């Protein structure tokens, strides 16, 4: 009888263990399902946000015929939408570097598409030098899509490093300063990706990054552009 009772207890224990494992597996699968759905929702939200940003930037190039008040409301909505995007990314990523990289990728995907709109609407001529390209970005592209005109300075004797200095950055109109725990965040890193993506589509490889940021206490906001091919290399290739 003791053996039977012991065997019965062992079977019951095994059954309980099996049920516990099954419950754990079901909970695990449920978590995975929820995570997949959340991931899909995040992707949809990002796509909608990027779609809106693309739509806004494209409409900026057609803004002269619109009422000023409507334009102001649209710009404020764009700035708030971008702020909400950055805030959501900060919730999802602990490291500032990951948020910066994500913003850069999003900007890149915008830039490779926005270049067609820019070329069609600006009717600009082909730039013959890096300095002309930098001036075009500042005086035409920034003015067309963000309503500001950065000043341009060349930072190298080789003529392939430039700075765009913004006295006013419309993307931070509603941001006073970065939280202490987000000191390494490049809040407007989307702009770097946009510039990089657009340049790549016209066969200009470049590194684009923020050199100074007023949100971090700097006197100005400065975006650095380094063209990765030297001008003399381009001339040499054309002469081959």
TrEMBL record:
Endoplasmic reticulum in keyword set: yes
Stretches the record annotates as Disordered: 1-31
Chief subcellular location: endoplasmic reticulum
Presence of keyword Lipoprotein: yes
InterPro entries, A to Z: Bet3, NO_sig/Golgi_transp_ligand-bd, TRAPP_component
Lineage top rank: taxon: Eukaryota
CDD domains (alphabetical): TRAPPC3_bet3
One record GO biological process: Golgi vesicle transport
Location(s) in or outside the cell: Endoplasmic reticulum; Golgi apparatus, cis-Golgi network
GO cellular component, one term: endoplasmic reticulum
Keywords: Endoplasmic reticulum, ER-Golgi transport, Golgi apparatus, Lipoprotein, Palmitate, Transport
Role this protein plays: May play a role in vesicular transport from endoplasmic reticulum to Golgi.
Assembly mode: Homodimer. Component of the multisubunit TRAPP (transport protein particle) complex, which includes at least TRAPPC2, TRAPPC2L, TRAPPC3, TRAPPC3L, TRAPPC4, TRAPPC5, TRAPPC8, TRAPPC9, TRAPPC10, TRAPPC11 and TRAPPC12.
Family classification: Belongs to the TRAPP small subunits family. BET3 subfamily.
Protein name from the UniProt record: Trafficking protein particle complex subunit 3-like protein
Species of origin: Junco hyemalis
